[in-house]
Amino acid sequence: MSTEQKFKRITTKALELLKKKGIKITALTAYDFITAKLLDQAGIDVLLVGDSLGMVFQGNETTLPVTMDEMIYHTKAVTKAVNRAMVVVDMPFMSYQLIADEGFRNAGRIMKETNASAVKLEGGERIADTIKKITAAGIPVMGHIGLTPQSIHQFGSYRERGRDKAEADEVLKDAKIIEEAGAFSIVLEKIPAALAKQITEALTIPTIGIGAGVHCDGQILVTPDMLGLNVDFHPRFVRYYAQLADESNKAFTDYINDVKTLKFPSEDESY
Q1: Catalytic residue list contains 70
Q2: Disulfide: which of 3, 35, 63, 138 matches 51 by Cβ 3.0-4.6 Å?
């Protein structure tokens, strides 16, 4: 039996052990019961209920409009489907940035109302005190640095971060501060592979990469992206593992044609 098969439930300790053994961690997003159930049955390690739902589920241009109530609603659906995976929830924009106490209260609300395993916060040194306060209460926190979508208007674009030395040094510093604050893992988004490797080797907690190269301790993608459902969005770090937009379109077209031509329902499909 492999190390991964021994885990009846993925926890922070399980992720720590996977890093120590050099076994890559797998993570994908989920926003609904059916998708979460399929991913959990497939053996995914981490399910992120991401505020990316604001874009791929709600059709917004950014993640900023997503609310606490919406994150809780989607997470409740996801956790009902999961038996093994660790469910991590994005804390949405302005649910933790103002003061540490507000972030602490909102993190507690998420955990109390959703049955999730952890929360995720974007940012580095500026949110260290919030991470400390949340983790001190026994709530696991996943960090997120590099490209942080909740700060898109500050950055002005979705370009990669850490390209020059000054910015790379800042990202590395933030990673170390987040670990010291008590985070159990950290997402590295859209940073150079060499920088991600340096951070991964410098930290004892696992790193989860998205557009950050192969040297991270694990990888995450947005599920609709990797399934080929979100055809209008295809950055270089997304690999299509299916073309479900094309397959779905064919299924919908076939259904419409069958109904119009009286091929559906058949006698066997009628009562």
Answers
A1: no
A2: 63
Q: Is there a single domain that holds both residue 40 and residue 144?
A: yes
Same-domain status, 174 and 97: yes
For 191, the token pair is: 């940073």
Q: Which residues of 4-15 are buried (b: 16+ CB within 10 A; e: fewer)?
A: beebeebebebb
Q: Which of 4, 122, 179, 189 is catalytic?
A: 189
Task: Indicate whether 88 and 158 sit together in one domain.
Answer: yes
Q: Domain of residue 268: give its range.
A: 243-271
pLDDT at 164: 92
Q: Which long-range contacts (CB under 8 A, 24 or more apart) does 117-121 make?
A: 117/11, 117/86, 117/87, 117/88, 118/12, 118/86, 118/87, 118/88, 118/89, 118/142, 118/184, 119/88, 119/89, 119/90, 119/91, 120/48, 120/88, 120/89, 120/90, 120/91, 120/144, 120/187, 121/91, 121/96
86 plus 157 within the same structural domain: yes
Domain co-membership, 217 together with 266: no
Under-70 pLDDT residues of the chain: 1-5, 152-158
* Closest by Cα among 205, 203, 196, 208 to 171: 196
User: Residues 124, 189: one domain?
Assistant: yes
Are 59 and 131 found together in one domain?
yes
